[in-house]
Amino acid sequence: MKIKENRFVKTIEEYTTLVLSSFINIKFRHKIGYNSDDIRNIAIIKLDHIGDVILSIPALNNIRNRFPNVKITMVVNPSSKSIAEFIPYIDDVVCYNARFFDRSGSAKMFDIIKGIRFAFDMKKRDFDLIVDLRGSFASIFFAIVSKSKYRIDRGSYLLKRKIKRQKNNVIRDSFAIKQKGDRYTLKHEAEIGLDILSKAGIDIITRESNLKNPDFSMINLPSNLLQRENMKEELIITIHPGGPMLQKRWSADNYIELIKLILSNLDSKILLIGGKDETELVGSIFSAVNDERVVDLSGKLSISQLLYNLWVTDLFIGNDSGPMHIASACGTKVIGLYGPTDPERFGPFGKNCIALRMEKKCPPCSHGNCRFNNYRCIDQISVKDVMDTINDILNIKL
Question: Does 145 have pLDDT greater than 80?
Answer without folding.
Answer: yes
